[in-house]
């Protein structure tokens, strides 16, 4: 997550990103992972949360390491970010 004004990592946040390689990430039954962005983590989703400063806008960046053929063939497409209601 990058600060929209500076295009740099957001300062004074506990962490700027999450990786699917982190063992603490909670996987869904289909193997996918939901990542949550916002000023507070949803209850029980702290491991899957990237903190955002409530008074600042942000941009998201998705990085792929060692993509497979399905990525290049567009057999896999990154789903759109979905806004969910705060809990």
Describe this structure in words.
A two-stranded antiparallel ribbon has the order 1-4. It has a two-stranded parallel sheet with strand order 2-3. The longest helix is centred in the last third of the chain and has 4 residues, at 69-72. It is built from 1 helix and 4 strands; from the N terminus they run ββββα. It has one helix at 69-72, and strands at residues 2-3, 36-38, 49-51, 58-59. The mean pLDDT is 86. It has 87 residues and is low in regular secondary structure. The two termini are 21 Å apart.
The counted number of beta strands is: 4
Low-confidence stretches: none
Q: How many strands, what sense, and barrel or not for the largest sheet? A: 2 strands, antiparallel
Helix-strand topology string: EEEEH
**Strand order in the sheet with the most strands:** 1-4
* Percent range for β-strand residues: 5-15%
Helix content: under 10%
Number of helices: 1
Shape designation: globular
Radius of gyration, rounded? 14 Å
Mean pLDDT: 86
For the terminal residues, how far apart are their CA atoms?
A: 21 Å
SS-based structural class? little secondary structure
């Amino acid at each position: 997550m990058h600060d929209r004004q500076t295009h740099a990592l957001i300062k004074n946040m506990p962490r700027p990103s999450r990786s699917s390689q982190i063992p603490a990430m909670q996987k869904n039954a289909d193997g996918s992972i939901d990542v949550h962005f916002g000023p507070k983590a949803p209850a029980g989703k702290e491991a899957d949360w990237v903190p955002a400063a409530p008074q600042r806008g942000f941009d998201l960046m998705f990085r792929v390491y060692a993509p497979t053929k399905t990525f290049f063939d567009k057999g896999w497409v990154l789903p759109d970010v979905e806004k969910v209601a705060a809990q």
